[in-house]
Amino acid sequence: MGIPVLILGESGSGKSTSLRNFEQGEVLIFNVANKPLPFRKQLDTVPNATYATIGKEMQKKGYKTYVVDDSQYLLAFEMFDRAKETGYGKFTDIALRFRNMLDFVIKQMPNDVIVYFLHHVETSDTGKIKAKTIGKMLDNQLTVEGLFSIVLLAVTDGTTHKFITQSDGYTTAKSPMEMFPLEIDNDLKAVDKAIREYWNL
């Protein structure tokens, strides 16, 4: 049983930068939007990643840590591709494909594999910060955060970057008891180590 982990944050909040302490060979990054990494270090990357390429590379089982960078674009790009379709069926299809990807991680990957989904946020009508989707029609089909046991929120004040590990009532951040302090450095390699130690992976 693989472990999916959701990393939420605004653009510029430090989600991709949190990868900076990994070394080449330790992580495979699926670059959905094909953006360059925000640091000079070279890491193993699959450009223009799609559901198909993500599944194909994960089946090779060559890494213990994977990252899907800008995972919300898996939803958005499919919505653009199907923009001319009418009816509600496409929203169910789009939600199902995202859910199937997570099911593959959970059910098909080895127990010591962790897959991080770096995902943009939006603010709901009630003022809560949540995972960005493609609108209420898809939200009615899929609550993204509900598919994850760990949801970290990347935040910045312009000078420092950190992860929030628990909700204050206005976010969807969550993590198991005593896995993390309330706030931690935005270092995904340190997060990876903490998760593995907590669950004895």
Could you describe the 3D structure shown?
The termini are close together. The chain has 5 helices and 10 strands, in the order βββαβααβββαβββα. Helix 1 runs parallel beside helix 3 (89-108) and helix 2 (72-81) packs antiparallel against helix 3 (89-108). The radius of gyration is 16 Å and the shape is globular. A hairpin with a 5-residue loop joins strand 6 (121-123) and strand 7. Helices cover 27% and strands 23% of the residues. The protein has one domain (3-198): Rossmann fold. The strands form 2 sheets. The chain has an 8-stranded mixed β-sheet. It has a two-stranded antiparallel ribbon with strand order 6-7.
What is the secondary structure topology, with strand pairs?
Layout: E1 3-9, E2 28-31, E3 44-47, H1 51-59, E4 65-69, H2 72-81, H3 89-108, E5 114-119, E6 121-123, E7 129-131, H4 136-139, E8 150-156, E9 161-164, E10 183-185, H5 188-198
Parallel strand pairs: 1-5, 1-8, 2-3, 2-4, 4-5
Antiparallel strand pairs: 6-7, 8-9, 9-10
Helix pairs in contact: 1-3, 2-3
Tell how many strands the DSSP assignment holds. Answer: 10
- What is the end-to-end distance? 11 Å
The best one-word shape is globular
Low-confidence stretches: none
In the CATH hierarchy, the architecture is 3-Layer(aba) Sandwich
Proportion of residues in extended strands: 15-25%
Question: Helix tally?
Answer: 5
CATH topology: Rossmann fold
Helix content: 25-40%
Largest sheet: 8 strands, mixed
How many separate domains make up the residues? 1
CATH class: Alpha Beta
CATH superfamily: P-loop containing nucleotide triphosphate hydrolases
Mean pLDDT across all amino acids: 90
Question: What order do the SSEs take from the amino end to the carboxyl end, as H and E?
Answer: EEEHEHHEEEHEEEH
* Widest β-sheet, arrangement of strands: 3-2-4-5-1-8-9-10
Rounded Rg: 16 Å
Based on secondary structure, the structural category is: alpha/beta
